[in-house]
## 1
Amino acid sequence: MRVPLSWLREYVDLPAGETGRDVQAKLVSAGLEVETVEQLGAGLKGPLVVGRVLAIETLEGFKKPIRYCQVDVGQANGSGEPQNVICGATNFAVGDKVVVSLPGAVLPGGFAISARKTYGRVSEGMICSAAELDMSDDHKGIIVLPPEHEAGSDAIELLELVDEVLDIAVTPDRGYCLSLRGIAREVATAYGLPLRDPALLDVPAPNAHGYPVQVADRIGCDRFTARTVTGLDPEAHSPIWLQRRLQKAGMRPVSLAVDITNYVMLELGQPLHAYDRSRVSGTIGVRRAEPGEKFTTLDGTKRVLDAEDLVITDDNGPIGLAGVMGGANTEIADAVPDPETGAVRGTTEVVIEAAHFDAVSIARTARRHKLSSEASRRFERGVDPEAASAAAQRTVDLLVLLAGGTAEAGVTEIIAPSAPRTITVPADHPDRVAGVTYGRETVVRRLQQVGCDVYGADTLTVTVPSWRPDLRDPNDLAEEVIRLEGYENLPSTLPRPPAGRGLTERQRLHRRVGRALAGAGYVEALNYPFIGDEVLDQLGLAADDPRRDTVRLVNPLSDAEPALRTTLLPGLLAALRRNDGRGAHDLALFETGLVFRATGDEPPAAVLPVDHRPSDEEIAELNAALPSQPRRAAVVLSGAREQAGWWGKGTPVSWADAVEAGRIVARAAGVELTVRQDQQDPWHPGRCAALLAVVDGQEILVGNAGELHPRVTKALGVAERTCAMEIDLDRLERAALGPVQAPHVSSFPVATQDVALVVDASVAAADVEAALRAGAGELLESLRLFDVFTGEQLGEGRKSLAYALRFRAPDRTLTAEEASAARDAAVAAAVERTGAALRGA
């Protein structure tokens, strides 16, 4: 809401030296958000005067029209002689009054005016447009003034070019501040000054002679006032003061009747609409639209109406979208000359509508049709229903005054019965809310300044004013007292939080995993938790894959991603593709976070109360409606794992790097993984590993790792041989044997024994490793597969697996015999369990 300070002073007698900055400080202290104070006319310097065009000479030979004008500026130039000015505009004629800046003037933006030679003539000043004077963005032509203004008079004062405008961001609960009346009330309260309420007008009582109106929906429209004005002069234009106030408030002057309705709306906060009476057929009605009913609004758009839309109608159908925008079929006609008689034709009779509509209905209609207007902004935030008749009277008075109209005696007013809202509140309730002792007198005084009627002693009965629909409970009243007393006067009290208990084990695991992956060279990439069906198709997930059972959002940010993720891979692969497309080809990314897995057994979510704290049972019921949210860690890799250089060839990423990433995560959790071959989408069937861990004595799947399927990499637009790993951190936490223990550093030497075992090609290396561990006993410190060999000398279908076994005792140095015995026991177990043979034996 833009509020000119000069207009505001009409309702509040501010001190003479009070500036816009001073008013801004007062309003901010009262809880309003004043974003800026615009200084209109800053740097403007005269002489800027009214001029009368005496003669116009059109100069030939130029690409655009150039006119050499003689302008009478009275005694403003010191000589009384006509001023010669070059001008390129063509929207004025001899005898018109224009705005002239004389040499020595400085226009907004620091543009200095001087006499100079141009187009072969000397131009002694400039004839100004609205844009050049910073009045509006209109560059189409210069300003043509009404003929009554005397040549040579000061145009700066005439056009009210010097002013201050407060730009206020009005929150949804303070709809009354979308008017000069509402802002003036706040200013008067802040300064402790009386308010001249512009809504206090003498309004005639309703009678049976007004324009016929029928309201079918009294819930959607609980008040409708109609007034009629006849005998309007179609050639009447909005006076300068009216146009300037609209421009300063951010609105564009259109025509006198429309400008007056906009002016009254800005003044009183009540949206109005003027219908051309000659184009309205029969009774004006208010009803809900018929499904599929069509209607053309003032902006020329043909709209298909919804059954919930509230419409204004006549005998022929809709003539207005209630509270949003009028119809093109009854709009005020522009004044145009009759081609035969030369007489000016236009609207001479209007019906004024001032109604009060349901805020929710108007808000839904405006959003449904994507048609936000000045009227809908006010209705959806709450309009004072008692101001409708005053706004209609104010509009009638201005039409009579400025357009020469005659107000008909008929007054139509339809009002649905209603009672003012009353709230009972303890007198010390604001004290208890703020932690400050205000006292009953202060509470009563502040509530009365808001406009409330207050009765009672220890318990107050407060009648809320009609312009404050946001005041609904005792806390709203307490907020009014606190803000008017000043938020800055509230004492600052530091809370005393309980002693911290540190991070949970789950949080510690989350941090350890992130640090471990970052230390291994991975870069964390945080992604939005939203996915769509398209990416699940690109991943090649089967129709019955549980990852397709997504949780859908009621209000998604993007129609392409309407669901919550069931896997971390889509977001990481999108980040990989984005970075690869920008030239970074060697990538290793990771993410830890929640996925959302719906089971289908979740009960509907309960709606929790807002007037008190929910009970533990209600919170538990709400939590039960949530989907399962396991915590995952995932990595994606592409390009080179080690760069090529003078030291040799580089190493491309492979499925083994993805598997090692899983082991890194598991080690951070203190869990030993078992790796087996697997087939799982979206991985390559021959290069996919299952990551297994023991939970409660049972081996379970905790994740998968490997190279992505070629069809997946092609569909997603990522590099070939892209690898990925995803692992369930919650399952790893259950597999962990308590907190991770720091490793014991032994002071005794290690004994290393290498063995090479020949097994069938179908035997998994993990099975051989498990057998070796079981047979080696407690002396085995670590075991590592360092070579896999196949060849003719082993025979078809056979492979050799070479392992390095490290033995160490915690309390002594092992002898060669003890290390050899442990190795032999490990080999024997492998022979027994897997059919292995010691190579070379």
Note: The chain has 21 helices and 44 strands.
## 2
Amino acid sequence: MSAVLDNHGHAGHAHDDHHDHHAPTGWRRWVFATNHKDIGTLYLLFSFTMLMVGGLLALLIRAELFQPGLQLVNPELFNQFTTMHGLIMVFGAIMPAFVGFANWMIPLQVGASDMAFARMNNFSFWLLIPAAIMLVGSFFMPGGAPAAGWTLYAPLTLQMGPSMDAGIFAMHIMGASSIMGSINIIVTILNMRAPGMTLMKMPMFCWTWLITAYLLIAVMPVLAGAITMTLTDRHFGTSFFNPAGGGDPVMYQHIFWFFGHPEVYIMILPAFGIVSQIVPAFARKKLFGYASMVYATSSIAILSFIVWAHHMFTTGMPLTGQLFFMYATMLIAVPTAVKVFNWIATMWQGSMTFETPMLFAVGFIFVFTMGGFTGLILAVAPIDTQLQDTYYVVAHFHYVLVAGSLYAMFAGYYYWSPKWTGVMYNETRGKVHFWWSLISFNVTFFPMHFLGLAGMPRRYADYPMQFADFNAVASIGALFFGLAQVYFFFFIVLPTMLGKGEKASQKPWEAAEGLEWEVPSPAPFHTFETPPRLDPTATKVIG
């Protein structure tokens, strides 16, 4: 999709150059926002705020672990930090950020005027604010925040103070927000595509979000069920997870991970979509194997439902069960590898340049692949029995979630922010942010593989002397990684938000493709009020 043609065959923007005078102003524009771009911006700002809160908790954890012995906090508060760090990062930072990208980009990419349900879109964002306040505010309740781990395992959850109930309520509200956002995304993609845009001509980012949205609708009610049973066990005399009343705490784990494993793919599939947009643009080639990418994404989503108990190899599972979950988990590596090979094949003999979006995309592929390999190692049941709940697992999922989800978001920000703000970010600062993040990330999390292999368990506030050196290195790395993200906000995001910098052209990236590059930069308040018509040959957009 390379050009918009008007009736005379000249490039033009007949579908988006008017109606800007309808834009509301002041606080009403944001509180009553129904425009997908404004709501996308709100999501992204909210998620960055939560990233900072969750990051602060991570730094408190690393400060405590800087040396053996107890330095700053008692073990109970330490467990509150680990629990809240996980919950805030997953439900407050990563998921809302991807929804922000979806809100901004999906209508632009499919040629829709807005999201399908504009008021529900507003509601699903504003639900997050009270949920986040309740979640973070639980630190100030009697007994402090929940300290049962982000997985909220029974029987610990049945012994927590009142903050546990606040946490459960917050999770319910965030889940409702996710479900509404997903319905909105599905209906927008299926019903509001521009004429001529078949499903198999859609950008990969739209595909990965369509599949992610179905995953969310499938598993969010499962999480709601698990935490509701926890709530009734706590207050209404049921015994779902209480062995004294005939319940089973392991049943909680089964229900939780049936949500929890698809959830980790919910957090990575949109990242795959972003990388699949960026790599072709900077390799100046079409995405290699588009159809296989779509099928691989769908396969990952389907397989994600049959691997949940690989989180439970140490719960006394029968051997047959262990073998099934071991092989199913290894199977999911196949479609994931297809994606990695396709990205590499796209870059192969491409005319590549390494602007910041491409740096983060390539960094993503490299570090995500490392995280994938450690996941494959943990899939082997006898190895996992040794490594279960050690720092090896912590290293594994941070390689996937920080270097996976977060790097892809940075890549997406650098790639699309010229379209959002109308201003080019500072390329030198972007590269500084990339190298600073990449090096400090690996300094933080690579030593954790060795800590785990040597037997250091996770979620402990203290440890024996032999783990001291690697922990000190990890803590220093973590501080630098955190500072890199503060640098990103103040020296890269803020200047572009304030309009400081070189003016962005309509298509700042030479080989970028897609309808989003057919509207001016910054994208006008209303776009595609008359849907663009796609030429059947799919190389042109007819105005």
Note: The first strand starts at residue 4 and ends at 5.
## 3
Amino acid sequence: MLGSTHGTFTTDLRARVVACGEERGVVVHGVAAVPGDVDVSGRDLYAAVPDLDRFFRPESVAVVGASDAEGRPNTGITRQLLAWAERVGARVHPVHPRRESVFGIPCAASVAALPETVDLAVLLVADPLPLVAELAEAKVRFAVAFASGFAETGAEGAAAQERLAEAVKGSGVRLLGPNTNLNAFEEFREDLDGPAVALITQSGHQGRPVFTLQELGVRLSHWAPTGNEADLETADFISYFATRPEVGAIACYVEGLKDGRSFLLAADRAARAGVPVVAVKVGRTETGARTAASHTGKLTGADQVVDAAMRQYGVIRVDGLDELQDTAALLARAHRPVADGVVVYSISGGTGAHFADLATAAGLSLPTLGAAKQDELHQWIPDYLNVANPVDNGGHPVGDWRGRKIIDAILADPDVGVLICPITGPFPPMSDKLAQDLVDAAETTDKLVCVVWGSPVGTEDAYRRTLLGSSRVATFRTFANCITAVRAHLGHHRFTAAYRSPFDEAPRTPSPSFRKAQALMRPGHRLSEHAAKQLLRAYGIRVPREQLVTSAAAAVRAAGLVGYPVVMKASGTQLAHKTELGLVKVGLTSASQVRDAYRDLTDIARYEGVDLDGILVCQMVAKGVEMVVGVTRDALFGPTVTVGLGGVLVEVLNDTAVRVPPFGEAQARDMLAELRGRALLDGVRGAPPADVDALVEVVLRVQRMALELDGELSELDINPLMVLPRGQGAVALDALAVCR
């Protein structure tokens, strides 16, 4: 776990957060510089930020269904709400039709009978739906519904939740829940300083590990238990927390996203503001997805798309709650890195090598220290020990000042941004002295100092008092969590430094290509290959020279015009995979071969019962790297663009990368970098490098098509896209398109 946040550990980050706090409104980095701005599909480009101040800090609260009868569940909840209201300075109004008072406080018979307009109504009733109209009439701003039995229970409950959501929509009331809990009204420690972690969970118990970080000195500012999200959702709280000057990081436990677009808009706001979002998103497996749906009743989404979308907007996805708490805490508190280099410092060569292997495999940069720096370290470390990185001290000096000198010398290297010291177990007095030297050195540097305390006991003074009591050292209990958090820390700052919102570049008006493409669309139908290629042509994507013919004689004439050798293919709206049926002929070099091929193709189509709109006579394109570029619709995020290794083995290779439009050239190139087979584009076994620039251009044109034809294009598949040698372009050899 990480240590305390007291003192100066967060001084520069806190100053940054406070300094930009005034700017994190609707105009920070142009987030809502053009209110109501929409893309070519008519969708909002910037997230609206709900004003949740009066939810978390209300001036007045109504508790509907309040009770003080011992043994009743509502009594315990009422008591907790009274204590919370006292802490935040809110007036409490119990509401119950059959009680004159609750805990000595006068009780109103209904919300309408309250003596003042309240900011928040807490609904301790089995069915909140009948109360919505009354709350709206009384101009209540926020309501919380604890009741269960909604979308988490199946179709009938989902229908009830839909009725509740519809009633809330347009009422002026913002609803948290149903199926939520009291986590928003927990008691937060007020004695901790520095930037805080704000917590969002769809399952209350899954937030407990993060909440208890306060006991280790990590400040927590808010907890939003979103439940079934009939109205207020995870995205609303991300957008709000990203504007709060006290929030240094947002930690999320997400079971299902209510709306993918809203989530991306919120993540974009956080990225613009430089506020890291760390998330556990369940549903990686079919079992996990099914469990999540049964618990919250929301779509989980195709996990590959969810993963790609989060990466695209800088959301740091982690797998476990322990990773969530450690990563969020480090990101909230640590200085902006001055360098990416990581040095591992250990009292054991084996420990250092082990940690260095894991860190390097995770993508961290472990630079070799220069000869001069190594000579300096060898003043205090025996010459036979390796100090190149990792630095093996052979046993941290205990009796004098040398240990501190070693640490200071490492931190003084300009290529070093992070020092990590794995202490595999307590070995007093060496481990005690090492911990104290690390803490003292950390006080004098703006670089990140991390310690992994490997003892399973965790009661040692060096851990409990020295390390956890430090305001500057980040302390972890496992190698894996330390590496995950440090990688996220360095990656977040690289990402935000270069971040340019995709929404800033999203097309606002349709292109001339859109009007040409619209004329080709056939609602509810699949286009033939010939028609699909015309669609590509409309967007400036190169296709082979070809002609569609309906006779052998016309095929021969077309071959002469296209130029031998040619390829001949059957074309029809029913044909998704022609090769498997033998409906493709390649390398035809004469008129007789063309006539024979025409006869063979039409005979096969007749035998297979396939209706044709003709036979394509196509230019035979030179060999290159076969890629696939396509568009599919995701249930959560809408149109998505995929690129990967193509050809007949595309399903076998399954080497693809996904992005959610809009995105720019940098993201398109990042997609290619994610492919396992990326090296093929650079040229292997004597092959020339492929025209990567042309491939990127095709990806960008396809995403423009996906955006502009969002309401009309269900699926697009360009396979293979032949990427020719550098400077020669890329040609779509085959295409499939399905209209909505």
Note: The first helix runs from residue 11 to 21.
## 4
Amino acid sequence: MKPIRKFTVRAVVPGALSALEELAGNLRWSWHEPTRRLFEHIDPMLWRTCERDPVAFLGEVDPARLDELAADGGYVEWAERERAGLREYLTEPRWFQSLGAQVPATIAYFSPEFGITEALPQYSGGLGILAGDHLKAASDLGVPLIGVGLFYRAGYFSQSISPDGWQQERYPVLDPDGLPLSVLRNPDGSPVQITLALPDDASLHARVWKASVGRITLLMLDTDIPTNTDALRTVTDRLYGGGGEHRLLQELLLGIGGARAVRAYTALSGTPAPDVFHMNEGHAGFLGLERIATYIGEGLTFAEALQLVRAGTVFTTHTPVPAGIDRFDRGLVERYLTSSLLPGVEPADALALGVEPGADPATSAFNMAVMGLRLARHANGVSKLHGQVSRRMFGDLWPGFDADDVPVTSITNGVHAPTWTDPALLGVAESTLGTGDTEHADWRSAALSDGEFWNVKRRMRLQLVEDARSRLAAAWTEQHSGSAAPKWISKVLDPDTLTVGFARRVPTYKRLTLMLQDPERLKAILTDPERPVQFVIAGKSHPADDEGKRLIQQLVQFAQQPELRDRIVFLPDYDIGMAQVLYPGCDVWLNNPLRPLEACGTSGMKAAMNGALNLSILDGWWAEFAGDDYGWVIPSADAAGDARERDALEAAALYELLEHHVAPRYYERDGDGVPVEWVRRVRNTLATLAPELGADRMVRQYVEELYRPAAEHAAAMIADGARNARALAAWTARVRTSWPNVQVAHVESGGVDSPHVGDQLQLRAYVELDGLSADDVTVEVVYGRSRADDTLDAVRRAPLQPVQVTDAPAEAAPSGPRLYTGTVTLDRAGAFGYTVRAVPRHPLLLSAAELGLVAVAG
């Protein structure tokens, strides 16, 4: 019999154990092992059954057991110590507080998903996990950040696999009252309600849930409330669910509603208003329009407000392909961007922000990433290679500039070590190396023997084997109407066999089935009698991606062969809980995307932090960190004739590495059965690579390279009644009006009839400024090695100086072309080329390319 309503009744904890409720209410427990040990002590088996979620756990614990512990002075003292530790953690100065006064007051960090713990399933993959790690590292460093997202009642989806290998999706509904969340309330106790005006006099309402992620507050908007119509209650039903209009409503709510939720929260809590807004991908781009509307309400024009918004906005792109960007029908967006929703904002001004470069403004799709870049003066990709890819992919926004000039930098993603490092590795660091900081421990210390380390690694591998068997047995029982799992499942995998892991989302470019290119060769590798290899594989395909589902089906059917099923397994329903066992249990982490389509790929980072070596295509983070001690590079067959040939060549390289390099090294043992060379590489990976992969390194970079500059620029723009924003908007309008007629009319050179190293190239350039002054432009020679394709390599630039005409001041704008002169010293031999260009110049511009205006000598 089905209930007509379900809700969660929270446990009543004895007063002596009130510390447990306080500790459960802050998600720091998701990465703080001492707190997790405190809860586990209550009932270890139930703790695992409740998936290490203290809120659910306390609701299931036998009250008699809590009463027993409340009478146990030692346990009560332990709980009080942990509570005191949490309170100290929340209030003590940390790294950020040591930076002095010139720092942001608050950063608002917007993301469509946050992966913090499996108990709060508000993530689908890498974007959400990265966002969760960003919050955790910001908390550890004391960065004053507010997270902003949506609360999805059914999260992403739960995955099961049918007997024929097809992915099936379920959407279990979450009860927020049973999660570590609270409602944002007004002083009178009523819930804060965020409202968005919709077409046809409709309104979308949302309440705001708060989660405490250490020192960070995460705000999540939820439309499943009675004040909405039945249709609008479902706006936040599923992550990345529904069609175009449904997704548009989600992104309007995230951006516009999220900005309003931040205003409500800061006003109620006394937290300083954000001076920096960070968009984690383009999904939250509408927050810029909401902020523009607010400034227009304070008396600024759209152009002036845009300068203010851009100054304090950071945009991070995670996609390396245009197909990964949200694009909406222009007419649909126009229908929603009304003056009721955004007072003072003309729809044409708002729509122009999303027009794709080179497209007809009247018909162009509305591109969320393009809008995000136009609303942000500070932008980055998520690895060095992805930064290069992004500069090329978005280069049309800055026409006429080379990719190197495009103002998109890069900060390589990192992972939060306390979340992803296995407790066994933490335990040996504490007991033998004298530190709980696994990320910076001395893993090469003689205090830790190779044998002891290898035993720890085997325990982590055994843990994975047992977990995999348990998951496979549960999946079998679910598939076969409760029947008992067959005995062979209890024998899958072997804790003493080389274990390769592969787990991630399953779009086609990640090539889940590359390993199946030559099935017979893979079989031979798996079943080698002397050096066997086993694979543990997991991943979800988007519900609408049938091609991705077919890849899963192909792999599952391969793994179902009786002679292989103990050597290769596919684990259903990949999530944080599974990942925290999978990464530590693997010896090798496999990653074989189509290069350069992996923006970063942090799963390999998490594996490395748990003593795994990487076996990967040179893509994402691996392209900048690969080293002999850290794993192996799968060569990319970039010159292949087509995709089929490329896959065949790269699969052959993968087999070659497994057969002749990876497996032999793993099974090369000393007299005590320890693979000494393998362990040396793993310990070097932990000692030298792991510190570079941490989310603390990543967040420090965001603070120093993006947040601090953004806060400084925002402060400069808003000072004195937004004087600089008004001035820059007026100057920009004037320059844009004149620029079509700005040209480098003529260039003369001399001094190099027979050029040798050390000679000086003398230049005279005549530039038509069309009424602009010399202070409005920079004229420069751009030079470097001349390549066969008529491009320049190793580019350098040198400014040319205006020649003063008669007695006129240098800043005056004479009639006719203006003369600029300068010299370039030829300091190296070889092919040489140069050109002359003019670009806008203003002290408040961050780069010469910022306005996307350039005039180059023809």
Note: The CA atoms of residues 278 and 841 lie 26 Å apart.
